[in-house]
Structures are given as C-alpha cells and as structure tokens.
Amino acid sequence: MLKNITKVILLFTFISNAQQVTKTTDLVEWINPLMGTDSSYELSNGNTYPSIALPWGMNAWTPQTGNNGNGWQYTYAAKKIRGFKQTHQPSPWMNDYGPFSVMPMVGKETVDEEERASWFSHKSETVKPYYYSVYLADYDVTTEITPTERAAAFKFTFPKTDSAFVAIDAFDRGSYIKIIPSENKIIGYSSRYSRGKLNNFKNYFVIVFDTPFVTSSLWNDKTKVATFELSGGHISSLVNFKIKNKNTVVNAKIASSFISFEQAEINLKEIGSDDFETVKQKAKKTWNTTLEKIQVEGGSIDQIRTFYSTLYRTLFFPMKMYEIDASGNIVHYSPYSGKTMPGYRFAGTGFWDTFRALYPFLNLMYPSINKEMQEGLLNDYKEGGWLPEWSSPSYSDIMIGNNSASVVADAYVKGIKGYDINTLYDALLHGANNEGPQATGRKGVAFYNKLGYVPYDVDINESAARTLEYAYDDFAISRLAKLLNRPQEEIDLYEKRSLNYKHLFDSETKLMRGKNKDGSFQKPFNPLKWGDAFTEGNSWHYTWSVFHDIEGLSQLMGGHKEFVTMLDSVFTMAPKFDASYYGSTIHEIREMQIANMGQYAHGNQPIQHMIYLYNYAGQPWKTQYWIREVMERMYKPTPDGYCGDEDNGQTSAWYVFSALGFYPVCPATNEYVLGTPLFKKVTLQLENGKTFTIEAPNNSTENKYVQKIKRNGKEFKTNWISHEDILNGGSFHFIMNKTPNTTRGTTPEAFPFSLSTTKQ
After folding, report:
1. pLDDT tens, 355-387?
2. CA distances to 175, 258, 325 from 262, in Å
3. What would the pLDDT profile of 174-221 be if each residue is shown by its tens digit?
4. Spatial contact of 148 and 268, defined as CB atoms under 8 Å apart
5. pTM to 2 decimals?
6. Is 249 strand, coil or helix?
7. Closest to 635 in 3D by CA, of 667, 617, 615, 658
8. Are 107 and 163 in contact (CB under 8 A)?
9. What is the average pLDDT score of the chain?
10. Parallel, antiparallel or unpaired: strands 175-180 and 229-232
11. Residue among 307, 309, 340 nearest 322 (CA)
12. CA 500/CA 643 separation, integer angstroms
C-alpha cells in the first residue's frame, strides 16, 4: 500500500511540474512573496521577507517574527508574530531604517514585544504583493494590510471584548509618540537606523482609526507614563477599544514621511476616503499593470510561479525616498544635510550587487523609473559630494567597487535621456580619482592610478577584487565619455585603465592573483581561499570579472580551448574551500558547498555571469546546458526558493533575463549575450510602445539546446542581440532541440563584444 501511495505522489508531482500553462492572466496571483523567506544567519535561501508594497514604493509592510532590530524580521520557520512593521530594509545584513510597528491584541495591556507576540500558522496566512492577512491565534484576531506608495490601510477583526488593544511601537534609538483621542489619531516618529550617518533623520508617521479609543497609554520602554505625548529612547503606545459584537472591524489608515508630520498627513491622502477594499483593488491593479510588461506562456506551473515571483523581487529596490508636497512639487529628505530638498531620491540598493543585471533590466523594461533614479543619483552627488555605492539610505561603508560608473553609463548607453548627464559624468570622474567616505570613490586609488592595480601588501582588503572592478568601471566611464564627445585623451585614459585586469593575471595558474607593491604575486596563494584578495569569493569566482574583455582574458589563458577548459573546471572541481580569512564558514561558502555544482557559487554575485562566457569561445551549447541546470535546481517558488541572498533584485534579475533567453554580461555596452529561453512564448511590452516577442514553440525540459534562431524571419547567427534590436520590436524565434548544435555560434564573427577585438 505504501509503495502505491508513493507512486501516486510521484505521479502527481510530475504532472504538477510538467503541466503547461498556455495563457497567463491576473499575473500578480502567480507570485509567492514567501519565496526565499526560509532563511537564517547560517544559510540563506534568499534572505527575503514578504514585502506588502507597491512597485518601488517608499514603504513596505511585513509581518514581524523577529525581535526589534533583528535583520531577519520575518522567517518562515517562526511560530509567532510580534507586530506588523513598516520597513525599508534592503537585506538582513543592512538592517532597517525608520521602522515602526502595530500589533492588535485582546486581554493583554502590554507593549512588550515578547509578551504581545501571538502564535500563527501559514495555513491561516494569505500573502500577496498587494494584500496580507493572518489569524493571530492567541487573540482570535485577524489582521489585514493593503498598501499605497507611502501609506497603508489596515483591518483588525476582533472578537467581542472590552479589552481590545492595538500597540504602536516606535522602536528604540530615539522615538516619539503623541496620542490625540479627539481625532482617533496617533502621530509619532522613529529615528532608528543601522548604517551610515544620517542627519536629522526621522520617519514621521500618522495613524488614524475609525473607532474611538476607550483608553490610551504611552510607554517609555516598559514603563507606563501618564501623558498623551512622550519622547525618549524607546516609546510605544497602547489604545483600547470596546468591541460590542464578534467580528467587528476596526480600520486604521497609516502614512509616513521622512520630512514632517504635515507631509505624512499629505501622504495619507493617497488613501483619502477609499475603503479597504478599494485600496486593495487599486494596489492589485498597479501590480498587474506593472507585471503585464512581460507576458509568458508555455511553461510549467512552477516555472510561471517562479518567473513572476522573481520579477516581483526586481520591482522594489531602490525604493522611492521622494514625496509630493502640498503644492505638487517633488521633494525629498536629504540624509547629507538633514534638510528638505527638491527633486527625486531613491535608497536601499548596493551597486556591487545590482549593476550586473538589475539596472540593465530596468533600462530594458522600465526605463522611466530608472530615469528618476538617475536624477536621484544626481541629487546624491550635489548634496553629499559623492555618488553612493551602497545607499541605506545614505552612504554605507560596506562592499567594494566604484560600480556607480556602470549604473550611470548603462542607463545612458541604453538610451535614457532627459537629465543632467554631464554633471553625472563629472561625478564619475570624481569618484574614479578620489577616495571618499563610507565606501564612496575608490579605496586605494592612488596605488591603482600609479601602478595599475591595488597592491595586496598595503593593508587594503580585497585588493584584487577592487582592481578588477575598478578596471571594468573605467571601461564604463570610457563608453560614456565617447557618447558625450569628451576629449580623446580622456577616453583613451579610461580605456587604457580598463586593461588593468591584466596586471593580476597569473600565467602559472591561469587565474587572477593578488599582487604586491613591488610587482611580485602574493605568496602563498590558494585559489580556493575566500576573501583575502577577493570579496565574498575566491580566485575561481573573480577571475571572470573582466566583463568588458572576455576575449582578452581568453587569450591570457592560452586561447579559446584553454579558456573553455577553465570554465569547465569550475563545475568539475570539488566544492572545497579555505575560510580562514573570515575565521568561520560564512553562509556564501556553505551555499556553494551544498549546491553540488563544484566551485560555481550562484548564491553570490561575482560569478553569476560566468555561465554565459562559453559564447565567447565558440561553445554556446554549454551555456545553454548550465543555464537550465541553474534555473531548474537553484530557483523554486517556495520559501527555500533561492540558493543564496536574493540581494535587492539582482539574483532575481538573473532568472528573469535568463528565462527570456539572454543576459547583460557587460553593462555599458548595448549587447545581451544569448542563452536558452525557458518558455514557449514571451511578449515584452516595451515603454516605446513596441512589442518584442520571443518564441520557442518546441521548447521543453528536454529541448534545452538552441538549434537555430530567426529574427523577423531571417536567420540570426550571432551569440548576442543588441538593445536596439529589441527596442525596434518584432520577433525572435528559437528552434530548440534535445541535442546541442555544435556548429552554430562557433566562429569569432558570432562572439559578443570584447574590448580587445571590437570597436563600437
């Protein structure tokens, strides 16, 4: 009997995975916001939280299972919820800024986060991008949330009771709350933040209930204070309602502002007189309108769910940090001066992660929002003196590189215009030639500009990784310089510097290696050692970080045959590692070790493009094979659905691009390198009004290899497609097969851009 049951389960699983979806509608309903939430400090399956928000909204809301200040604010394995938190957190490693929470209770007059926590079950939890609902078992209360960009509507459904409470927690590190019973209103602010230095920072909030308070109280930490207004280290409040009938709903409207209480009231008008259901339907419509830019057909149920769940993750960061004042002007809080300034601003992203695929994705599918982001970067430079490399929400001293150069250059190369690009270019030159505060500019720039690399032995950590990224960033600057008709000697300078990667190539190991100030290589050298000369990776991961000159790297290795052998070795080597630099096995190492893909570490960014590099050496079918392996094994629409940190849309953007059949290996060029499409049909609705259709009618799990491609009916022979080809609209038709075509894309004429062989 058990054997038969097992067969039925296996058959059902096969049918679920294999059943083809011929038409997708109501796209937001395919999303699982819990994808990636089954994570911990030791092992990341995404390190995400369910974000109840609008695309690029200023605020998000999430159920809070972790204690206040814990970056793991929601984990799937948790059993209790202690609040519903407004959050701006990009990742648990960066933590949050301006958080506050609300929590309904029955029978407990407490604001203590441990005492107020309630048991819950995922069986009684509904999680959608535009709506969240959960039953709080300890209180017989259901909480519902639906968002706008800067506000949210709440519904609390209580049992019959005289002791219904809602706690408002403004968190520690400086907070304030005022209760206004005559208006059923609470105002307050949270000044908590985790990274950088913020001037005059406050997240002002206003909460308006539709039900009068019976009683109310304020608390300084755990001490109740008899007053209606209180400031201190950790301020909370408690309001009490008398509920006469079971299933009575108490509604609340909540808005916030980084500028003032008055602006928070203006932001509350995003809800206005709308009831909860109206706000919910508007939020759902916004999501569907945004998602409908990409319509996929002809995939399994799990593939469709995974695609739209990853697309959802690409549409949050960086978050809007600008607001619209009473006169309709776009304004923002400046963390540099603490003042209200005109114009756009965004926050909550690290360019080390997101320059690779997230920003190129925005440039392709949502260029208008990235135009706003570019204007925001311009304001960062004008107000703070530097472009950010990690903004959360100001400059944050973490990670390496000067990858703002890529973010700025790629936007302009891809045709986004209408902002002061010349001042942004000045900002790139400033960052490229100076070392700034909080990881801005370039650490070790004096060495880099003099020697052509950052030395290993001058007390600058991760020196080889810095050199490789600076070289690529110089390439990005040179491409933008050409478009802006800068002096030829300036263009030549940065193009020459972009070849600095060659200084670190060790011909003995055919890998990148730290180099000392005197020109000798670091000794001893273990290519499997994580950190040290590299950033969250080893030499086998970082050697491929020559995005702009893969042909040059290939020739250093001895030619295409040896290059392919080195690529193959990444997958065939055992996942051995040396973690001594960190003193323990960091989660990124563990995620590589358990993936059963050798040294390939898809859970972190440095190597994510490497699979596509077979296209530069005449063996594109290996790219096609490994893309499908990663997509099928490393992504699932489940709480453990990622194979490492999702990282502000980057790891999701890899999946989205790869599902389309191409990937931006080298941002700041106009090329996308081909892979293998996942679906039978994808329709891109471009912002210019044109439609680009990707067709692979005989696509399947077995038919993963590209046999032939036609562009608008004509044979397409290269291993890349241009940005302009896509923007012009039309069809891109793949004929797939279960066996590789070992003749297509094998000659240099088909290879993508490399600086050593191509002049654009």
Report:
1. 999 999 999 999 999 999 999 999 999 999 999
2. 17, 11, 9
3. 999 999 999 999 999 999 999 999 999 999 999 999 999 999 999 999
4. no
5. 0.96
6. strand
7. 658
8. yes
9. 96
10. antiparallel
11. 340
12. 32
Closest CA to 422 of 432, 412, 435: 412
DSSP classification of residue 260: -
The full DSSP string for 157-192 is EEPSEEEEEEEEE--SSSEEEEEEGGGTEEEEEE--
> From the CA atom positions of the chain, what is the Rg in Å?
26
Under 8 Å between Cβ of 250 and 241:
yes
Give dist(CA 647, CA 644) in Å, integer.
9
User: pLDDT tens across 408-441, in order?
Assistant: 999 999 999 999 999 999 999 999 999 999 999 9
Q: Which of 48, 49, 77 is nearest to 62 (CA)?
A: 49
Residue whose entry in the numeric block shows the structure tokens 């990707």: 694
**Mean pLDDT of the region 509-516:** 98
Tell me the DSSP string of 637-693. SSTT-SSS--TTTHHHHHHHHHHHTEE-SSBTBSEEEE---SSSEEEEE-TTS-EEE
Average pLDDT, stretch 569-592?
A: 98
Mean pLDDT, to the nearest integer, of 317-322?
98
Nearest one of 355, 752, 356 to 554, comparing CA atoms:
752
Three state DSSP letters for 429-450: HHHHCCECCCCCECCCHHHHHH
Identify residue 427 by its one-letter amino acid code.
A
- CA distance linking residue 66 with residue 81, whole number of Å: 8
CA atoms within 13 A on the CB side of 207: 30
More confident residue, 22 or 501: 501
Residue 699 DSSP one-character state: -
Q: How many helices (H) and strands (E) does the chain have?
A: 20, 38
Neighbours of 717 (CB within 10 A): 13
- Find how far residue 683's CA is from the centre of its chain: 23
How far are the Cα atoms of 127, 315, 320, 546, 562 from residue 689, in angstroms, in the given order? 33, 20, 25, 35, 45
Per DSSP, the residues of 265-278 read HHHHTTTTT--HHH
With bands split at pLDDT 50, 70 and 90, how would you rate the model's confidence at 19?
A: confident
> Tokens standing for 361?
């994705």
**Residue 759: predicted pLDDT:** 54
384 bridge partner residues: none
Tokens of 150: 């800067």
